[in-house]
Design goal:
Blueprint lengths: L9 H20 L2 H23 L12 H18 L5 H22 L9 H19 L2 H17 L4 H25 L4
Length: about 190
């Protein structure tokens, strides 16, 4: 196989860079499915737990078991997008590891939540603000930036609320921070 090394003129270089940035934004934008999947799962779990507490169900936390199939769906989508993506950029890797780190932190909180009597709704909302906000910055997509800010605000609010009300606020935060931006992202045309 013969290779040719040639110098690119400045316009060709800029064109290649622009194409790479566009590809990276497209790869990340395709991940909007995760905002919708996790938005629905977590909103339903929050509101479902609230409802189960209201009817005095003995184990309302069991509603959170709906997150287990969501983990497997996320893995499936990740594998599918990985095979479909023509180019994986450094930005794609940072984005992926940011969300994996977020997941590890959340599962650690859940795993050791008994040490704080599972009173971690406010903390989870605050932590959720970080990757959501950074996703908005990465995509240059204001609804996710606003979603990240709203997670932060709802997290602060939750510190001042009783546990049951925190569940309602968590459901509202997920709708505002994940679902609304997720649908907007899914419907956004490539620019």
């Amino acid at each position: 196989m013969e290779t040719h090394d040639r110098n690119l003129d400045p316009n060709e270089s800029l064109d290649i860079i622009a194409k790479m940035i566009h590809q990276a934004k497209g790869n990340v934008r395709n991940n909007g499915i995760y905002f919708l999947l996790w938005g629905w799962v977590v909103a339903l779990a929050n509101l479902g737990m609230y409802a189960l507490i209201q009817v005095d169900y003995s184990a309302p936390y069991l509603v959170w078991l709906i997150t287990i199939p969501a983990v497997f769906l996320s893995m499936y989508f990740g594998f599918k997008h990985g095979k479909k993506s023509k180019v994986t950029t450094h930005l794609d890797n940072i984005y992926m590891w940011m969300w994996i780190s977020f997941g590890i932190v959340i599962f650690t909180l859940v795993g050791f939540g008994y040490t704080i009597d599972y009173q971690f709704n406010a903390i989870i909302l605050l932590i959720t603000s970080i990757p959501t906000f950074l996703s908005g910055i990465t995509l240059r997509f204001k609804p996710l930036v606003i979603g990240g800010i709203l997670f932060w605000a709802f997290g602060i609010l939750s510190f001042n609320l009783d546990y049951q009300t925190q569940l309602l606020v968590g459901g509202i935060a997920i709708v505002c921070g994940y679902l609304i931006p997720g649908y907007m992202l899914r419907n956004k045309k490539d620019e």
